[in-house]
Design brief:
The protein is of the alpha+beta class. Helix content is 39%, strand content 39%. It has helices spanning 2-27, 31-44, and strands at 50-53, 59-63, 66-76, 81-91, 94-102.
């Protein structure tokens, strides 16, 4: 009885992890898209000496092939370090920055 319960738990855990990995891969921008987002943020926030994306997207909306979301960045210039929120959109493979706002 206990063995059957443990097997059931393991199977459910494997299914859950598989679904999480699949959804993360589907929602997350590709490496190329991430590099383009970083490049566009750097251009809009110029002059920037250092640009660091702080974590995974804070929010992602997904509809078909279109993705929208935002990242939080730490920008370093000669005089200051500040956090910004960069809203982005990927439609049909085209990456756009909607806005870059100070936090």
């Amino acid at each position: 009885m206990i063995r059957a319960i443990l097997i059931g738990i393991v199977i459910l855990a494997l299914v859950g992890v598989s679904m999480f990995v699949f959804m993360h891969a589907r929602l997350m921008p590709t490496r190329t898209e991430l590099a383009r987002i970083d490049e566009l943020v750097r251009e809009q926030a110029a002059p920037v000496e250092n640009l660091q994306r702080l974590r995974a997207p804070d929010e992602i909306e997904y509809s078909g092939t279109d993705k929208r979301g935002y990242f939080t960045y730490l920008l370093t210039t000669k005089n200051q370090t500040r956090k910004v929120r960069a809203d982005w959109r990927i439609e049909g493979g085209r990456v756009e920055i909607i806005s870059v706002k100070d936090l």
